[in-house]
Write a structure and sequence with these properties.
The protein has about 350 residues and is an alpha/beta fold. Helix content is about 55%, strand content about 15%.
Length: about 350
C-alpha cells in the first residue's frame, strides 16, 4: 500500500505540473490575442485622430483609471501592441485558414491564423518585444525568430543573442554542395544549419592568435560555440584520432547533429580558404563514414570555417568534391592589441595572487 500510495502521489504531482504548463500557455495565448486586437484598435484610433500616436497617452491614462491594478497599459506597452499587430497583420491575409471560424470565435474576434503564423501566440510577450525592436517592417525575419524560439525553447537571453548576431541574415548562407551530394530532405536541413559567416565575437584573443589558440578558446566557450552552431548539435570530441591507412589523422572537432542524424566534422582555419582544405576535409568525412557511422546514421557532412575565402575558388573546390561539404567564414572582433598582451596577468599570476591573500 505504501509503495502504491507513493506512486499515486508522484502521478498527481506530475499531472499538476502538466496542468500548470497548459494553463500558462493558455493564459499567454489569450493575453496575446487581446494585445493583437487592442493593437488593431489603437492603429485605427491613431489614424483617425489628428494627434496620431500622441493619442496613446490619453488611451493609457484612461485604461489605467479603469483598470488601476493592471500594469500593462503604459504608453510604451501600448505602442508595442500596435506594432505587434502592424508587423504580422500583412501576413494574415495570405495565411491559409485552419478550419472554419466558429460562432464563439467570431464573437470574440479570436484571430484564426494558422500555417506560417501558428507559432505566433505561443511565444511570451517579452520575447515579442525583443523581436519587434529588431525586426521593424520585416515580418518574414520576425517570423523566423518566432519559429526558432518555439522550436528550440529559447530563453529571452538566448533569443537576444541570436537577434544581435543576425542569425536570420546568416542562416543557410554558406557555400555548400549539399544539394548535389545529399538526399533532398537532408540536403535542405544541412544547408539550413550552416551559416556564413559564423560569429565568434564571444571570444577574446590577442591580435596575432594562431590556430591552436582559436580552437582552445572555442573549447573554453563550448556552450556559446554550440549556440552559434545552432540547434541539434552535440559535441563528440576534439582532436579525434582516426587511422587512415597507416597514418594518424586528427579531426579538429567532431559533432553529432540530432536533426540530421549524422556526424559533422568541423575544421577551423585561421587563414583564408585554400582548395587543399576541402580535399583534407573530404578525406576526414570519408574516414568517419567508414569508421564511426552507424547503419542508422545518414551520411557524414563536413563544415570548413576559415578566416576568409574567395567564393569562386570555394565553389570550384566543392564542385570537384564528391563529399557533402560546406565552407564558411567567421567574424571575430574582440581582440586584445598585441602591445597590451604582456601587461595582462596570466592564470599563474592570478593563482599566485590569490594564494598570497589567503
Amino acid at each position: 500500500m505504501e509503495k502504491d500510495y507513493k506512486e499515486w502521489i508522484s502521478q498527481v504531482a506530475a499531472q499538476f505540473r502538466r496542468c500548470q504548463v497548459k494553463a500558462a500557455v493558455k493564459v499567454n495565448t489569450e493575453m496575446l490575442e487581446f494585445y493583437w486586437f487592442l493593437g488593431k484598435d489603437i492603429l485605427v484610433l491613431s489614424e483617425k485622430s489628428v494627434y496620431g500616436d500622441k493619442i496613446l497617452q490619453q488611451i493609457s491614462t484612461d485604461l489605467q483609471k479603469s483598470l488601476p491594478d493592471v500594469k500593462s497599459f503604459s504608453v510604451t506597452n501600448l505602442l508595442y501592441m500596435k506594432n505587434f499587430y502592424l508587423l504580422y497583420n500583412q501576413l494574415v491575409e495570405t495565411t491559409p485558414q485552419v478550419g472554419e471560424q466558429s460562432e464563439e470565435d467570431a464573437i470574440s474576434n479570436t484571430p484564426q491564423v494558422g500555417g506560417q503564423l501558428a507559432a505566433l501566440f505561443e511565444v511570451p510577450w517579452g520575447h515579442h518585444k525583443l523581436i519587434i525592436d529588431k525586426c521593424k517592417n520585416q515580418p518574414d525575419k520576425a517570423l523566423f525568430y518566432i519559429n526558432k524560439t518555439v522550436e528550440n525553447s529559447w530563453s529571452r537571453a538566448v533569443l537576444l543573442n541570436y537577434l544581435s548576431a543576425d542569425l536570420f541574415g546568416r542562416q543557410g548562407k554558406a557555400i555548400t554542395n549539399f544539394k548535389e551530394n545529399l538526399p533532398a530532405i537532408q540536403g535542405e536541413l544541412a544547408q539550413e544549419i550552416t551559416k556564413d559567416p559564423y560569429n565568434f565575437d564571444f571570444l577574446t584573443l590577442h591580435e596575432r592568435y594562431d590556430e591552436k589558440e582559436l580552437k582552445d578558446a572555442l573549447m573554453d566557450n563550448i556552450s556559446r560555440f554550440l549556440l552559434e552552431l545552432g540547434s541539434g548539435f552535440a559535441f563528440v570530441g576534439r582532436e579525434v584520432r582516426l587511422m587512415v591507412g597507416e597514418k594518424e589523422k586528427f579531426l579538429d572537432m567532431l559533432f553529432y547533429n540530432i536533426k540530421l542524424h549524422c556526424y559533422v566534422v568541423l575544421e577551423v582555419k585561421v587563414t583564408p580558404f585554400d582548395a587543399s582544405y576541402a580535399g583534407q576535409l573530404g578525406t576526414y568525412v570519408v574516414a568517419v563514414n567508414h569508421q564511426l557511422k552507424g547503419e542508422n546514421d545518414t551520411p557524414t557532412i563536413g563544415i570548413l570555417v576559415c578566416k576568409d575565402m574567395d567564393k569562386v575558388e570555394a565553389q570550384y573546390a566543392l564542385e570537384s568534391s564528391s563529399q557533402p561539404i560546406g565552407i564558411s567564414g567567421y567574424e571575430l572582433s574582440k581582440l586584445i592589441p598585441e602591445k597590451y598582451k604582456s601587461s595582462l596577468p596570466s592564470i599563474e599570476d592570478i593563482e599566485k595572487s590569490a594564494n598570497n591573500e589567503q
